[in-house]
Amino acid sequence: MHAVPIACGGFLFAVLWFDLMFDVQVLRHRDADVPEPVLGSIAAYYRRVTIEASPMGHAVGLVMLVGIVALVFQWIAGSVPLWASLASLVLVLPPVALAAIRVVPSAMRLGRRTDPIDVQSALARRICRDHFLCLAGVLGFLAVQLVAASG
After folding, report:
1. How confident is the model over 46-89, as pLDDT tens digits?
2. Which of 108, 110, 140, 143 has the greatest count of CB atoms below 10 A from its CB?
3. Whole-number Å distance between alpha carbons of 15 and 77
4. For helices 59-77 and 82-98, what crossing angle results, to 10°?
5. Contacts of 135 (CB under 8 A, 6+ apart)
């Protein structure tokens, strides 16, 4: 039962890596509105992956759900130490919730490009910050799962 959560975590890490390749463009523009070419690049990416990629865009949510269900089964089956199951859930649930509640709606909104530049800049910065938080949780979850699988 180790393989499914680890595979889900690896997939989520890869998705976050690709998102962050676009998100980090905002880091050079902390004090003013993000320049149009940068916003255009980030917004086009999020339009493709959140609005235009249906039904494949739902794969990330499905992997999140499969990963959480696998962790619950792992916990019930006792296939890893209890601390590993609980730590994994504590580490992965906040990024999943953050993605569902704030990141995806913000990315879709940015992808539509209907807001003023200052709002789009704020959305792009928030998405970047949220993705770094999600990355920390997913990496922690993966580390716990890998340690549990090796022990």
Report:
1. 999 999 987 888 899 999 999 999 999 999 999 999 999 999 99
2. 110
3. 29
4. 160
5. 13, 16, 20
Which pair of structure tokens corresponds to residue 29? 């523009």
With CA atoms as reference, report the closest residue to 129 among 18, 19, 11.
Answer: 19
pLDDT in tens, 90-136: 999 999 999 999 999 999 999 999 999 999 999 999 999 999 999 99
User: Is the Cβ–Cβ distance between 94 and 108 less than 8 Å?
Assistant: no
Those residues whose C-beta lies under 8 Å from the C-beta of residue 76, and which sit 6 or more positions away, are: none
Tally of CB atoms within 10 A around 83: 10
Q: What is the pTM of this model?
A: 0.94
Q: Using an 8 Å Cβ cutoff, are 1 and 144 in contact?
A: no
